[in-house]
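1st attempt posting a full record on here, be nice pls
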Amino acid sequence: MGSGKTTVGRKLSAMLRLQFLDTDQELERRTGVSISQIFDVEGEKGFRKRETQLFEEVCPQSGHVFSTGGGLILDPENCARMHRYGQVIYLKVPLEVIWERLQFCKNRPLLHADNPREVLEQLYRERDPIYSRAADFVVRAGQEQAIQTAQNIVRMLDSEATAVPVNNA
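the predicted structure (as tokens):
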């Protein structure tokens, strides 16, 4: 949340000449209501179920860059699905930068709390190790422009594609 997944994802998809899909935006489009409204009516569990159903449908589509909600990868089946169909990139942004971006944001249901900073810190502590383990690439981001982050990702993907496998036989 607040890492720039959508902004970087759009830039990256343009550079790679691929379609872009933000799962939160697609879920809002399909349901006709905001993520916050889904949380209000169905709770986090209901939202996660909808999010997973959408991802099961769209993930196999090739030629896409996906931006997913930060909780999607917490489900081991979703994580496996991500790896089965593509590369997983974690935009690792310092907590302070995320807080600067989100401190006045009203449309983040998980931050609707008496102390949103504390909630954000807890989510960061819990999720950072999970994201780091699950990622094929961890990209340190947040200080540079989204275009620079996308360019860094393209370089990483190019480097991975041109790497020569080593035969240890």
